[in-house]
Amino acid sequence: MILGKVIGSIWCTQKEDGMKQLKLLIIEPITWEGGSIGQPIIAADRIGAGQGERVIISRGSPARTMFNKDAPIDAVVVGIVDSLEVGEEH
Amino acid sequence: MILGKVIGSIWCTQKEDGMKQLKLLIIEPITWEGGSIGQPIIAADRIGAGQGERVIISRGSPARTMFNKDAPIDAVVVGIVDSLEVGEEH
Amino acid sequence: MILGKVIGSIWCTQKEDGMKQLKLLIIEPITWEGGSIGQPIIAADRIGAGQGERVIISRGSPARTMFNKDAPIDAVVVGIVDSLEVGEEH
Amino acid sequence: MILGKVIGSIWCTQKEDGMKQLKLLIIEPITWEGGSIGQPIIAADRIGAGQGERVIISRGSPARTMFNKDAPIDAVVVGIVDSLEVGEEH
Amino acid sequence: MILGKVIGSIWCTQKEDGMKQLKLLIIEPITWEGGSIGQPIIAADRIGAGQGERVIISRGSPARTMFNKDAPIDAVVVGIVDSLEVGEEH
User: Fold this and answer.
1) Whole-model pTM?
2) Is residue C61 part of a domain?
3) Does residue A38 lie within any of the structural domains?
4) List of chain E residues whose C-beta atoms are within 8 Å of the C-beta of residue C41
5) Is the ipTM of this complex over 0.90?
6) How far apart are CA D18 and CA D67, in angstroms?
7) What is the structure's pLDDT at E90?
8) Where are the beta strands (DSSP E) in chain E?
């Protein structure tokens, strides 16, 4: 999984049937200190992540398994981060 | 998923059986402000995305699940973007 | 999927059983204008792609589904390109 | 798989049901000489890896197969490294 | 698949059950001319690849399918290279 920050939302009317009723967020990958790294990704969210929150994103096939067979989801918010702790030497 | 823009089409006569009757688009990954990022990818499209439109692309195994077992599709257009909203600080 | 060019072939005597009787090509990822991008990959070919031809490559799990359960194939030639068309502004 | 070092931990209260009771570690990818390479990833750990230990990380669908169908895990600690040996010319 | 060279071995006592009795090699991705490219990966080997040999590596879900459901393998040696041939213009 990777660490990210919710920076926005995205909407589509015309879409694959398996994408219906899914909330899609724009996520910016970040370091544990909060700096932006890499390109934003679009992830489905079922747990209510809000603008600016730090989240954990799972990608690829593991992100799809929770959904119906016809939902072509390759990234999902799996947790909203309460806290993280990194060793002193970093 | 990633954000992209339809920039062209591609055709093959000789192909794997599972690729028959599929429309293949050339997609340029873009930022939410529209700038080009990374190398173009080729994605299957079943929802009628047109030249120049912004689309959401799903990749990998989740892109294949909607198709028959013998369709080796690793990228698909899953939505045509109506609008997106990114927080002010970005 | 990505666009590539067939630049060579590769042979192994000692291999996993699932790799037997497979033709393996060396593919150079290219832009639509033909320029080389990124590192070559090795892909299985069942449709007879020839040296120098432009091909479409599918990767990951979708590349394996067409083969037997014991064939550890993660890249396959899915089409030989006849033509492609990219919008004027690119 | 890749080589990494455990550099921290991360906690979420609000999460997908399949993520419950999983210990999540922050892993820094490293070279065999211990230098940091690439961005940290978040991996599930069931074998008790400790802060500062070198571990092997498996990613993608293979990381999920050991878990329940509803656990969207895309990275897991699969071994704690005892030793490694690299040829002299490297 | 990608081309690599066996540069070492790695051992773990504490590991996921599905990793038992697997030989793990350290593989350096190389170009067809033998130059090092990218970061080393750790791959399972069942075909007896030796130090310094050129091998073909398959990654992701296709690398896992040959193993038991509980083996979280995301990279495997699928062939030991006898020879490869690349067109003159490269």
Assistant:
1) 0.95
2) yes
3) yes
4) 1-2
5) yes
6) 9
7) 65
8) 2-15, 23-29, 41-45, 54-59, 75-86
